[in-house]
Amino acid sequence: MKKLIIALAASAALLGGFSTGAQAQEKKKVCFIYVGSKTDGGWTQAHDRGRIELEKALGDKIETPFLESVPEGPDAERAIERMARSGCAIVYTTSFGFMDATVKVAAKFPDVKFEHATGFKAGPNLATYNSRFYEGRYIQGQIAAKMSKKGVAGYIASFPIPEVVMGINAFELGAKSVNPDFKLKVVWANTWFDPGKEADAAKALVDQGVDILTQHTDTTAPMQVAAERGIFAFGQASDMIAAGPKTQLTAIVDTWGAYYIKRTKALLDGSWKSEQIWDGLKDGILTMAPYTNMPDDVKAMAEETEAKIKSGELHPFTGPINKQDGSEWLKAGEKAEDGVLLGMNFYIQGVDDKLPK
Amino acid sequence: MRIELQKRARVSTLFSVLSPLLALVLTLIGGAILFWALGKNPGSALYSFFIEPLLEVWSLHELAVKAAPLILIAVGLSICYRSNNWNIGAEGQFTIGAITGSILPVLYPEWHSPMILPLMLLMGIAGGALYAGIPALLKTRFNTNEILTSLMLVYIAQLFLDWLVRGPWRDPQGYNFPQTKSFQIEAVLPEMLASGRAHWGFAFAIIAAVALWFMMRFMLKGFEVQVLGQSERAGRFAGFSARRMVWFSMLVSGGLAGLAGISEVSGSIGHVQPSISPGYGFTAIIVAFLGRLNPLGIIASGLVLALTYLGGEAAQLSIGISDKVSRVFQGLLLFFVLSCDTLIHYRIRLIFAGSQAEAKG
Amino acid sequence: MFEAILLTVITAATPLVIAALGELVTERAGVLNLGVEGMMIMGAVCAFAATQMTGSPYIGIVAGIVGGGLFSLLFGFLTLTLVANQVATGLALTILGLGISGQLGESFVGQPGIKLQPIVIPLLSDIPFFGRVLFAQDLTFYLSIALVIGINWFLFKSRRGLKLRAIGDNHGSAHALGINVIRTRYLAVLFGGACAGLAGAQLSLVYTPQWVENMSAGRGWIALALVVFASWRPWRVLAGGYLFGAVTIGQLHAQAFGIGIPSQVLSALPYVATIVVLIIISHNRRTTLINTPASLGKAFVPDR
């Protein structure tokens, strides 16, 4: 008994002794909230790469605390509020599911800046940012149509949200610009992150005769399946060439760092404004991994398309485009409005799947 | 060296109180070693975990927000486990309760009546209870093991929610993103105090815990739960029906999980979305046992577990401990608490080869 | 194509079957270890790490088994020596396992793994149709089949198996008969952990040769459900695992085929199928009762 009390007292003293208060901060705090773990190998890791780049670029002026594996829902609101209270100058909330929580906390802390990724609700101190992933998907579609012998690609999708639907359509558009009869088979894995299930979906698609795979899920499992079955595939979120040195044609690499540096500089020099930003290839928020495992003419085509998109000469969603049922969506020469793209919930012609309504 | 247990003649009142404290001390020591090994200052890490979240009013509110669903679900589960019904599907009942409770605000967003909130809560309870009724029906009618059915129904409920918010319940003004319209103000469970986010869900949790404690302690039904849990045969001799107990315990726990679900959606989130629970239904199983299946104990264990979540976050932010390390620390804490509870019923003897020495007793 | 689908189903079902078989033995001894998910993920990370460091997936398999086994001893110590509550300890083990594996595996994320290659059995693998499916598989598949046969023999044909079942049915009487309850249970827990570890190794070396956090993604829970589904009989574990795997893969094919049913409905099919089949096979109360270990989850302390 006596020992116990001593132990208790000792630990209490230990606690008291070390409990130093917050030290004075001179560097500005640029804070990040992650939905996954920073080593998830996918979405969150891409944001964390961006954070590390930011710290490399501006590390003498800022520090970059972060919270990982924050569940969407009430926990998010608490985590964001904790950030705001801990003296962050700006908080990046890096998942769509943090939208309403960010809106609520932003209203409570008008002096703190917030930026929410992939959402659509903004405010005086709340900006939104997103990446035009569809530009990369269009290029991938073109490459797929050139490289596929059967004219059918398989698409492993996560959840039917506009972002994913837009990606599927952009891929098909790119493919059809090369081969008008190109078909796309879609399997919904109903997960962002389950290597086993992604591999199963990939195998199912290959067994049904596709000879190119692309994915909108996070792990390299589909790339590994493609490598094993001797077909080509595209990487997602990071350069996945290590998982398929002879398989990956290219990958859409999320390079959020460019964006974070740009915005943080604006914050430091006082020019930060609340905006709804949708950056693309030209801004460096996404980049294409090296074009590999393809003949030179295909590579040249891909590079040309990339250059055209960067210069603004080519917008992937330019008419004439018909919806899946054959009805007209965009007239010849007409470009899709951003608002329509961001809320996209229909397929274009050629996608061999029914969209859950 | 060998460890031997010796049953105490009586339950040790001293150790019922002391064992959590002992567990805390062991956790502090274990945690200090863990953090030191990772090159972090053990003092400030432990401070962030256990003290920092308790120092500010807003943070106390957050503690209540986090603990409310855990307590609410766990007290219901304690009735199940006491009566030997293995409902491990509270997560699914929580989800269905959230869905059925949200029917009114989602389908009638223009209905501004004070009646809407009570109706929502009732429908949430009914939804959770009915969903728990499925394993109850299958167990009583077809003799199907409830561990399996209740678990499988969790996945089905989550997929149903997913389908709803991506399909028929999607907010038409929300760019086709998977969430419903925000609830009208009358459909939002209000906050208890102006000083923070804690809503009436926490009060429901405390009321439910006290009510079930009263039932277990002073009412015949409580006795029935315990007798049937000990032995179905003995229960039959006393005239209790095991079949009816399956229904009773499953409906109570399902109803409470459903209430937790609608309280969470209405009070903390304000709309329905694909992810409404970070596994509350499963964490509540631990909370139930940590509270020794005693409703009042569950209030304490629910708060402690909620504290470790908040503390993990605080530690991440203040000294950069990764969320994985806070999971490990949480596991350590649970292990120490669970094993120290042994002292309530048993004396522990350490037996060394040759000589015998008594350690703590 | 049918052969390819069968191969996919086998790969998906094997980890479930192996982990469930281990848990079956643990539960037959009267111990309920809900920490399968945690032991599995520990096995996966140990197997992957050992393979990356040595270059040999066979060493990885051993490391997975050892990792899962050692981790299960922690559960054993708490629940058997200190008689802590089994349900809560098992869940805590899962929390701990997810945390530790994430920490251990941090540096391995993104590294391409080394796949455990199939062992092609000459002649037998040339049998038309079934040859390649059954006799050109990797070690884990052969082990899963050997485990089914071995455990079935052990439980129902051997003396030690009889003792183990006796402990699971009534530890008090087993103890009175002079059987060492605690030691047997320790071995059963260790076996369960080793099997879960092997299942984890299959995930990170065969199913998807890579390491990412939480890569078990709930498969430990499905394995637990399978034990109940099988009413604690090894052959039914095999059947249940393949049924679950077949419906899972089947729904993906249905999607790729484009049948236009919401994917959530299709994704729910494996769970619905499991419930429905369990209802059909468990209507006979007596056979279910005979096979259910009566002292499952109850603490045992020998009185001396």
Automatic annotation (TrEMBL), chain A:
InterPro entries to which the protein is assigned, alphabetical: ABC-Purine-Binding (IPR052910), PnrA-like (IPR003760)
Highest taxon above the source species: Bacteria
Residue ranges of domain ABC transporter substrate-binding protein PnrA-like in the record: 27-309
Keyword line: Signal, Sugar transport, Transport
Any GO CC annotation of this UniProt entry: plasma membrane
Stretch forming the signal peptide: 1-24
Presence of the UniProt keyword Transport in the record: yes
Pfam families xrefs: Bmp
Name the record gives this protein: Simple sugar transport system substrate-binding protein
Source organism: Rhizobium soli
Organism classification: Bacteria, Pseudomonadati, Pseudomonadota, Alphaproteobacteria, Hyphomicrobiales
TrEMBL record, chain B:
Record keywords: Cell membrane, Membrane, Sugar transport, Transmembrane, Transmembrane helix, Transport
Record field: transmembrane: 12-38, 58-80, 92-109, 115-138, 147-165, 198-216, 245-262, 282-307, 328-348
Highest rank taxon of the organism: Bacteria
GO CC terms in record: plasma membrane
InterPro entries per record: ABC_transp_permease
GO molecular function, one term: transmembrane transporter activity
Topology term for the membrane: Multi-pass membrane protein
Location, primary (coarse class): membrane
Localization per Swiss-Prot or TrEMBL: Cell membrane
PANTHER family: ABC TRANSPORTER, PERMEASE PROTEIN, GUANOSINE ABC TRANSPORTER PERMEASE PROTEIN NUPP
Protein name stated in the entry: Simple sugar transport system permease protein
